[in-house]
Amino acid sequence: MAKWTPKHEAPEPLEGPVVATITGGTIIWFVLFVVQLPFYGWFADHGHTWWVWTCLAGGGLGLIGIWYVRRRDAAIRWAAAPPEPDGSGPGSAGPGSTGPGSTGPGSTGPGASGPGVVSR
Predict the structure, then answer these.
(1) In this predicted model, what pLDDT tens digit does every residue of 5-43 receive, in sequence order?
(2) What are the structural domain ranges in the chain?
(3) Which residues are CB-contacts of 118 (< 8 A; sequence separation ≥ 6)?
(4) Residue with more model confidence, 44 or 5
(5) Which of 25, 28, 75, 81 would suit a FRET pair with 58, their CA atoms being 20 to 30 Å apart?
């Protein structure tokens, strides 16, 4: 077999209303779960109870997805924000920083944490 080599560059990732999309999908999973609950007996008689529990699992995983994409969106917005006039914010060495590349409490260098991320 010949070694596979790409002939084209990878396309740019698609960006869109990610939070709204994940939220909409999560709502659909929970609605399907609630709609199927009155028919649980029929599903049990025919060996299809996994349909009901799949909808519940989809809704639960959707809640995790909503949490994840909201944090991702906040981190992207935080990183793209211009530095604050007082010297704090992304792209500037904030108070408590020991210089560029620092990972201290106020740093924004490599390895620094975004909003709501706890550094250890």
Answers:
(1) 778 888 888 888 999 999 999 999 999 999 999 999 999
(2) 18-80
(3) none
(4) 44
(5) 75
